[in-house]
Amino acid sequence: DAGITQSPRHKVTETGTPVTLRCHQTENHRYMYWYRQDPGHGLRLIHYSYGVKDTDKGEVSDGYSVSRSKTEDFLLTLESATSSQTSVYFCAIAGGGFFGNTIYFGEGSWLTVV
Amino acid sequence: GIQVEQSPPDLILQEGANSTLRCNFSDSVNNLQWFHQNPWGQLINLFYIPSGTKQNGRLSATTVATERYSLLYISSSQTTDSGVYFCAVGGSEKLVFGKGTKLTVNP
Question: Is A68 exposed, middle or buried (0-12, 13-18, 19+ CB in 10 A)?
Fold first, then answer.
């Protein structure tokens, strides 16, 4: 199994509070992703990173920011959480290049905004 | 952007039956992957298959890139095959996911 750890795994927070989800990998893979999964929508890309300090937006990036200061860590921040951000958040990694494009997922973080 | 459609949306089988899941996409891609999400939410990569055919045990997949579709075959299904199967397509950096096929295998 790919070495991907998400934290926290479960969180309940109040509307308007900031929340940070952490993704940590031990594979030294270049690409890291944050997806959200909601009923009826499948998995949608929020942001992704193609290297340290190199990030780009996905299809549902409004209300989210990311940072990647080290190869192994990719942080997703909700600056001011809203109820519409209640979701399951998945981190994923891919090696690219020599490692190929196969994507591996973390176990997910369940976030509830009340 | 790329549109991904999976069919059927739901599928119920008896253990031992075979099935075919389909993924259609709207544009040329150089990256296509199939995933299985088990009932506990874990997402497992099944195949990286931008073209051609691959097999892994009872599962096999075929992608016809020129006709913009991919098929996932499950033979002799088992209850552990239950879950949602996702197709994801795109380029070298990011993928767009379909909404999945929910498979239920009854004993």
Answer: buried
pLDDT at site B43: 96
pLDDT at B58: 97
Calpha distance A103→B23 (Å, rounded): 18
Cβ within 8 Å, pair B95-A45: yes
Closest residue, chain B, to A91 (C-alpha):
B43
Q: By the 8 A CB rule, do A32 and A23 touch?
A: yes
State whether residue A109 is helix, strand or coil. Answer: strand
Reported confidence tier of residue B94, pLDDT bands at 50, 70, 90 = confident
Candidate from B41, B95, B96 with C-beta closest to A103 = B95
CB B75 within 8 A of CB B20: no
Q: In degrees to the nearest 10, what's the CA dihedral of A31, B94, A91, A40?
A: 180
Query: pLDDT at position B1, please?
Result: 85
